[in-house]
Fold:
Amino acid sequence: MWWDERVSARFRRNLQPTLTYWSVFFSFGLCIAFLGPTLLDLRCQTRSSLSQITWVFFSQQFCLLLGSCLGGVFKRTLAQSLLALFASSLAISLVFAIIPLCHDVVLLAVVMAVAGLAMGCIDTISNMQLVKIYQKDSAIFLQALHFFVGFGALLSPLIADPFLSDTNCILANSTNASSSLPQLRRALPHHPNLSHLELPPRGLLVTRVSYAFWIMALINLPVPIAVFLLLYKERMVPCLNGSSPPLLPADELALETRPGDKDELSTPAQRPHTPPGHEDLFSCCQSRNFQGASFTYFAVHITGALVLFMTDGIVGEYSGFVYSYAVEEPLAVVHKVAGYLPSLFWAFITLGRLISIPVSYRMKPATMVFINVVGVLITFLLLLIFSSSVVFLFVGTASLGLFLSSTFPSMLAYTEDILQYRGCATTVLVTGAGIGEMVLQLLVGSIIHDRGSYSFLVCGMIFGCLAFTFYALLVFFHRMYPNPSPEPEEASAGRAAQPEDTGQYQR
Structure:
């Protein structure tokens, strides 16, 4: 195997929880990418204007950000974390099942807000739990975690595509009363305000997109079951008793107690309080966390969050507007061909995250982040230079997906390593990434509306430059950041009171 025996032993010991967190992130990805291709069918279903249906996007993104902030509240014990993940993954299946029954746009926005809250909790808790389990070895497992987001985001549009309407989605009494869906799809990139394209208030709804949502609900159903099984194994299901966790085999115990590894982890079950470095956003903002903190402590948090603000924002705005850019002049790509661009982007994000799993074991997170931000910058520069080339648009889209794929997990591993897992990096970075994805989408959409489609690439270039600048500042503050060393009394007391890490969770 391409990792050493110590990491392999830790993975085997934490196999079920690790696979469970990965599967929960698949739910996250499944829910994040279906709105784009199904938007016009959902508009027909709710008989709403385009300006009304776009609020569904906002409700999901805003509540995703809110859920990311609140997710840390449920992580104080393993029971709270797993119960929150169980409720969130089950909520996503219920959302998929309920969406076909939402014939009012306000009700659809409320349902998607619930999905956003569930996704935010999944995002925060899963990242935190994997960092808790693996700490200095977490980079490779975070890469795998985010691979499942890309896989889910790639799968949901593929499921929806066969059920999207190609003819009139509402059959009205009058010939001129309804607009065909292909006409709406062709008009979408060219006319950001399509309120003049009215759908009839009455008529027979013929869209088949409901089947896609029910299929996704069934595909996602094993995820809450997997979380429930983990709850049962940890004896956290009321009125049910699971077996005690097995003791470590002698060879694994020897690997864990090897000199040099003793200071990596201590048994969370023995800790009376939440370990530092995994606070929720509100706890992180309390003044007690600022006492004695240096300027570089805050600078590392802020610059790391700003890098992800830009890079995750680029993911959101590029996947959302590359289709609109492609069908406009000077490229004027055929609409059906341009529809492959978002899928290509997510496919290469998924592929990049898969490749990053073994690469992250051999390469430092700081180096991977550097390659990512430089690659994004160069790709946007080439897209600007060859802006009239359709072929290079597809090549650049694939390249951008590869370079953006591993930015988040690499930055998370790098920042947590700088802070020795004692800061609030996970919470701050997840929040910064969520804000960036929401804000930059709205910003780029308004700029394209006012300045034209070419500003799409100009915005991407600016965001890439800012991401590189903030990364350079992060490296600078890393060099200034003092390496904390435990006080002798505290360290000796900790060793006396706590046995070595057994790979079990905080309860």
Summary: The beta strands are 170-171, 204-205. The chain has 21 helices and two strands.
